[in-house]
Amino acid sequence: MKSPRRAVLKRTEQEAEWFFRDLGGKIPEGGDAGTRAAALRIDGWLHEIPPFHRGVLALRYVPRSWPTCIEDELGELASVVVRLECALHPTVGSTTEALERASVERLREEIQICERARARHERSWRTPPMTASEERIGRLVRRAWRHVALAIRALAKARGVGPCVVPGRGPR
Questions:
Q1: Domain span including residue 86
Q2: pTM of the predicted model, to two decimals?
Q3: Is 164 within the bounds of a domain?
Q4: Does residue 167 belong to any structural domain of this protein?
Q5: Least confident of 91-95, 99-103, 130-134, 168-172
Q6: How far apart, in whole angstroms, are the C-alpha atoms of residue 49 and residue 24?
Q7: 160 alpha carbon, distance to own chain's centre
Q8: Looking at the 3D structure of the chain, how many domains does it have?
Q9: DSSP state of 2
Q10: Distance between CA 28 and CA 43 in Å, rounded?
């Protein structure tokens, strides 16, 4: 049996994913009244949490296209990891797009190093030591998961304990 807290976190995650992935993080102008009402509730909860957490949830759930090697290596956290990597190399006067392009290039280089190391050690019976690149990427991924978890918890606190508001998902 799931704990009540875990159930609330699961509902919160479903609502955030629906709001950002399916609705693009926006309240629909027309259409189904139930969808609009659910989007309004979720948007209200999102405005109760710090903008940093809202941004992490948007990065996590709004679909973006990244180079294949980054999507393969980082999966669903690619956008969050790219943005965290950007923060390690701030540049005054650069646009977000320019910072992300530079971050993608750095990550691509790190991933290539990781892939070469994996290929070298694939034939070995020993567990290979982690390369510095694998450690850096692993640290970014762990930070990304931590930020997502904190954002979900903040949103869960704002939403409280009620049933899932996503149309068609019913009480859970």
A1: 4-159
A2: 0.88
A3: no
A4: no
A5: 168-172
A6: 18
A7: 22
A8: 1
A9: -
A10: 11
